[in-house]
Sequence to fold (363 residues):
Amino acid sequence: MQVALKIWRYDPVKGERALREYEFDAPEWATLLDCLDIVKDRVDGTLAYRKSCRMMICGSCGMRMNGAAVLACKTRMYEIAQAGEVPVISAMGNLPIVKDLVVDMDPFWGKIRAMKPWLDPGYVEPPDKEYVVSQERMDVIHKEALCIMCGCCVSECNSMEADPDFLGPAALAKGMRFVGDARDEVTVERLQEYSNPHGIWDCTRCYFCQERCPKGVDPRDAIAKLGAEAMAHGIDSDMGAKHANWFVTSAKTTGWLRETELVPKTQGVVSAIREMKFAMGLLKHGKVPPPVPPHVAKDVDEARALYDLVKAQERQGAAGIVQGERALERLEFEQGGQADRDPYGEEGSFPRPKPIDTGADGG
Ligand code: SF4
Ligand code: SF4
Ligand code: FES
Fold:
């Protein structure tokens, strides 16, 4: 098949970026990574990108296609080429570019290290008997353990774009992998540390990490679980935690969100007084409902019953987070006529390539 790619090249010596187009012949089973290999072998040997396993395991080949992070070895080119598309390939976002499609992963690894990504079982000498953990207990961290450290989630993280010190989805998912591990004995210390500024509560819940993760780790869910675990352990002094607590209290008592009280409950009274001028402006324009008497929703009993049900089911902490929730519909990143193409296929995997015609009669 004929394939065309546009690749953002970066020359670190001259400090120059340039968009180059390449056209070449590739087999129908080719992935994006295979295509880059063809360009490097036959067209331009100076093209730089990372790869290793070629089977979605090592996490080396993260890059962007049409502005969205992908694993090059997971991305089939057949349908794209058939549609006559010329995708734009560029380096991952939120990490410094070293050359062409290669990014500096040092900031990424620094944040992973900051999570103390090892088990702390609370003893120095191992006990005499093996410590057996039930499958059910390990299922709690099944998804977080799937991470291959590719950085695709980090590439798309809005919060990290605004604050490069934000720990980010990959590191926080790694944190949940240990917080949720029954063998780890420093859960509270971890949760306290992860709740510091630039941690759990700085996530804007945009869900881009979840949308782009090629391994189904669902890092935003992992962050939600960390937040819920922190609150279940009484670690709730951060404004983000107070904000979440007020949502619960407000919904449980009146059946709706009492926004007028949100600022004092979240930021404290002093900060709320500082915002008075702004609040008065809103009041003047009819944007603030009078706080007294508080409006109580007609179906408040439903909200209260729901609250009681969750309590009765003891779904505190991570157990209360709905796994695999799709908060947003799949976001379209592709340009041109690819709107109908689903890079994940129907059941979470990439589209099947067209069967290769081997010339055999099949008999
Ligand atoms: S949901 Fe949070 S961690 Fe994930 S990309 Fe958005 S801001 Fe970053
Ligand atoms: S969470 Fe997903 S996208 Fe992020 S590093 Fe791990 S495997 Fe890659
Ligand atoms: S080359 Fe290893 S994940 Fe793509």
Observations:
- The CA atoms of residues 68 and 83 lie 19 Å apart.
- Residues 156-159, 169, 203-209, 219-220, 223 surround iron/sulfur cluster (ligand 1) (CB under 6 Å).
- Confidence is low (pLDDT under 50) at residues 325-345, 348-354.
- Residues 239-254 form the longest helix (16 residues).
